[in-house]
Amino acid sequence: MTLSDPRIARLITLVIAALRPPAGRRRIALALFMGVLCHAVFAVGVLAMMWAMFFGMSESFGSVPWPWAFVANALLILQFPLVHSFLLTKRGMGLLARMLPGPHGGTLSTTTYAIIASVQLGALFLLWTPSGIIWYRAEGLAFWAICAAYAATWLLLMKASFDAGAEVQSGALGWMSLLGKIKPKFPDMPTQGLFRIIRQPIYVAFALTLWAVPVWTPDQLVLALSYTAYCLLAPRLKEKRFEKRYGDAFDRYRRDVPYVMPRLKNGAGKSEEGHNA
């Protein structure tokens, strides 16, 4: 990876524009406020997820009495994929652009989206009501081996997010574009890095984090099954959007690159895999 890499060049251009913002105190103040809010909430959401799953969802702040806790936890599971997917639709993106009053709502839509997603994740993992049942807790060498696997899945998720466009995934595109007074420029269809191996590395990496945990409870199993299903099904909707946006380019990419399972070998099975994906 070099400075000529389009992903690096795009980030450098965005950072340079943000470091020298044109005059406009209110615009600058709004951009910086949204940036701080976005990344603070993002950090809380991600850290809450890492912490809660590390303990198999047995450690959280939810205290809804049973059996109502089952309903509350189910709603927490459902709210993320439903809202997350809706906001990616044409209607949802229009709503995002109108959430902030004034002329900058459209520019800040990716930042607003990241804030909402982070609040959703924080709610899921901080407000979960644990069942109190622990099936398995790794110890000794097994504990350290699983911890290493857990860390590896998170590194994989970070790599996939960078390959897809770190500025979009983190919400930085919106507020940095507003700060630099430039039009947000979305990255092209991702085809480099992990996207050369499978079409949906972010969803696969996210699913892997659900299973590489040192503590297993009924709570973790329900979460893992639910969100693994989401990670397998939701990208189909994303790919329909890509079909409309990129046309033949995406069709060629889809023929050449499998959906979520890497190919073990090239050659005769390539064409067949591409058509089945």
TrEMBL record:
It is a multi-pass membrane protein. One of its GO terms (cellular component) is membrane. The chain crosses the membrane at residues 28-54, 66-89, 110-128, 134-157. The keyword Glycoprotein does not apply. Gene3D superfamilies: 1.20.120.1630. InterPro entries: Nurim-like (IPR033580). This is Protein-S-isoprenylcysteine O-methyltransferase Ste14. Belongs to the nurim family. GO terms for molecular function: methyltransferase activity. It is found in: Membrane. Keywords: Membrane, Methyltransferase, Transferase, Transmembrane, Transmembrane helix. GO terms for biological process: methylation.
